[in-house]
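Contributing new complexes? Match this layout with iron/sulfur cluster.
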Amino acid sequence: MTEAIKLKAKDYKSEVKPIWCPGCGHFSVLNAITKAMAGLGINKDNTVLVSGIGCSSRLPAYVDSYGFHGVHGRGLAIAQGLKVARPDLTVLALGGDGDGFSIGGNHFIHACRRNVNMTYIAMDNEVYGMTKGQASPTTPMDWDHSKLTPHGPGVRPFKPAALALASGAPWIARGYSGNPNQMAKLIAEAVAHPGFSFLHVMSQCITFCPEQTDWKAIVTEHEGPALANADEAAKVFLHEDGFQTGLLYCEPRPSWPPVSDKPVDGNALAGLAASFRV
Amino acid sequence: MSNTDTTAELANFLAHSLELESEARQRYDELAESMAGHRNLPVAEFFRRMAAEAEHHLQEVAELAGDTILPDLKAWEFDWPEAEAPETSSYEALHYRMSLFEAMQLALGNERAAERYYRGFADASDDATTVATATRFADEELGHAAELERMMTALPQQAAQLREEDDDPHMPE
Ligand SMILES: Cc1ncc(C[n+]2csc(CCOP(=O)(O)OP(=O)(O)O)c2C)c(N)n1
Ligand code: SF4
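Output block (do not edit by hand):
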């Protein structure tokens, strides 16, 4: 009888070395993902990481599993399609705040609403890192470091947790790149949650937002159990500072697609397809 | 060390020591790689050296643990004084333009944190072997810190390098 070999976090890393800037928070997310995979004893061959475009979206290349580096903002669409077609796989989608809340914002709200059994990790550095430091939907109103927005973007930033809640996400947590061990635990819990799990990670961009190193002093850990009531959670998410970490909200509901005992009529489907043929 | 002469406390201590050294080594490796990618070669070389030191220590602890059965802890189940294991370089302290002196300062902070951790473990333990082992590890870390301080004194003074990104953003029409 062969004994199963227990893999360590480093065994889940690929041979490809990250080209992120030293100190980039995305390294921490990579470490947290591989630690979670080792903690769960996840089978690499049954795991797929799907991303869009951005520094953050390079992450699937650095994990020794299946991966898909998709189109900007479309990681969630691809990941949901994959999970519905192959429910046996563990599917994680990931990307940056630009990818997920700007060009991919529509996919984000509908993924929360649809509740496919998968995990989405948004690596939020409040900036477009890859294209060298432009404002994103989570950039503070007065952030004036970019020549494109010399007086700050002047637009109120999104509150991703509030947006996710309003769109129907049943599981919402927040991590911080300064604490990869807590993040690993959250990822393990997110994967185990039977529905759409949204992990918002504050992941510093050391190059274009060096002031984000101050986050360390302001992050706090959510105390007590996760909120299980959307009304209460709404009050918290609308008024919090966005630096509370941990599992913040969990109110499970049936995931999509619905289970039905009504058989699918193959002929009707074939007929429908035929009617579109020209 | 065999199972018969190992207390649960010593096993827990050894599990933490292995994780501490392993995390330090992996982070130094990661930093050496990314600094080299950003052409900060003196700092890359220094982090590579630190990774080799941590690996050396890791092997020593592994040898000492021998066939001891250690608690099988997940990454988030270790009990550290702060978010990460004490000798792990914090991401907040890094920048691709950091000087060799700043890199050494960072490593010095790591060695001191590890020394405090081992010393604290020894102080809190009632188990004689755990106290002796943790004290030895703490003394070794103290030695590493002193060596780093010697290296820093020998280093020519350098002005702090500019941290602001001066490479213009890409502005497509
Ligand atoms: C369709 C399309 N539009 C625009 C771009 C340019 N682009 C590349 S990455 C990016 C934003 C990346 O920011 P974010 O998703 O926050 O990730 P980060 O780099 O900060 O990790 C943009 C706008 C693109 N690649 N494709
Ligand atoms: S530009 Fe920012 S987000 Fe991109 S790798 Fe560098 S630190 Fe990370």
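Reviewers usually confirm one structural detail per submission. For this one: DSSP finds four helices and no strands in chain B.
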